[in-house]
Amino acid sequence: MVLCVMNVSEGRDLKVIAALREAAGAALLDIHTDPHHHRSVLTIADEGAARAVAATAVTLIDVRHHHGVHPRLGVVDVVPFVALEPSDAPAATRARHDFANWFASTEQIPCFLYGPERSLPEVRRGAFETLAPDFGPTHPHLRAGATAVGVRGVLVAYNVWIDHDVATAVAVAKTMRGPRIRALGLAVGAGVQVSMNLIDPTVLGPAEAYDLVVERAAQAGATVVGAELVGLLPGSVLRAVPIARWAELDLSEEQTIEARWRGRPG
């Protein structure tokens, strides 16, 4: 199975978010919207629906007026195609190529590939400077910017709040980074957050990440005050967490990919 986990730079306008939902239709397994990040993450189970969402986003959103705490390249910021099993990797790679080629040719959006060639952070750092787009124009689209189109295995997006200043969150995030975690320290509304991508969640999952933030934050005199799963996670990752901790960690069976797949219309 291949999923598309599209990150769109809109987290506030309810009419636009409703239009993105409508474009995805029955293929939408989940949408997570955050007004502070000014971002919506859509988990989509069909390539055609992913294209419909991307086209809708380009029509309705202007990145020039976008202000949010999360870094972004463009309106349709990140489009990873996710191989749920190793055997799905060739299909995910084909989907990545086809989407980037289509988006660049139909919407004139520069597309940068990531995955085996380079990481997403490398694309963010180098886009239009040390890296040229793999598809499309060599300059950003006026209203829509650019898009990073990737292929990857399953990761878990996970946020943990601490009761301190943003400098502490940035420092904690820096100590968290490694081959299994990408992390940013962000000011989010009135609070601060360590925002993480868990790259190998079967080895280092939400419970381990949460406990690491608790440990590192305590060393800086801060306390963890909450956690949030962004999007979905595999059932195997959930089952590795003691059920007694699910509420503390913002986890539930309903947030698994498998539960949403079983419950989709049709």
Mind sketching the topology for me?
Blueprint: E1 2-8, H1 14-24, E2 28-34, E3 39-44, H2 47-60, E4 76-83, H3 89-107, E5 111-114, H4 120-126, E6 147-152, E7 156-162, H5 166-176, E8 181-188, E9 191-198, H6 206-219, E10 224-230, H7 235-239, H8 257-263
Parallel strand pairs: 4-6, 5-6
Antiparallel strand pairs: 1-3, 1-4, 2-3, 7-9, 7-10, 8-9
Helix pairs in contact: 1-2, 2-3, 5-6
Task: Summarize the structure in words.
- The protein is α+β, with helices and mostly antiparallel strands and 266 residues long.
- The chain folds into 2 domains: 2-152, Formiminotransferase-cyclodeaminase, Chain B, domain 1; 156-263, Formiminotransferase, C-terminal subdomain (Alpha-Beta Plaits), CATH 3.30.70.670.
- The chain is 33% helix and 26% strand.
- The protein has helices spanning 14-24, 47-60, 89-107, 120-126, 166-176, 206-219, 235-239, 257-263, and strands at residues 2-8, 28-34, 39-44, 76-83, 111-114, 147-152, 156-162, 181-188, 191-198, 224-230.
- The strands form 2 sheets. The protein has a 6-stranded mixed β-sheet with strand order 2-3-1-4-6-5, sandwiched between helices. Strands 8-9-7-10 form a 4-stranded antiparallel β-sheet.
- A hairpin with a 4-residue loop joins strand 2 and strand 3 (39-44).
- Helix 2 runs parallel beside helix 3 (89-107) and helix 5 crosses helix 6 (206-219).
- It is globular, with a radius of gyration of 18 Å.
- The model has no long low-confidence stretch (mean pLDDT 94).
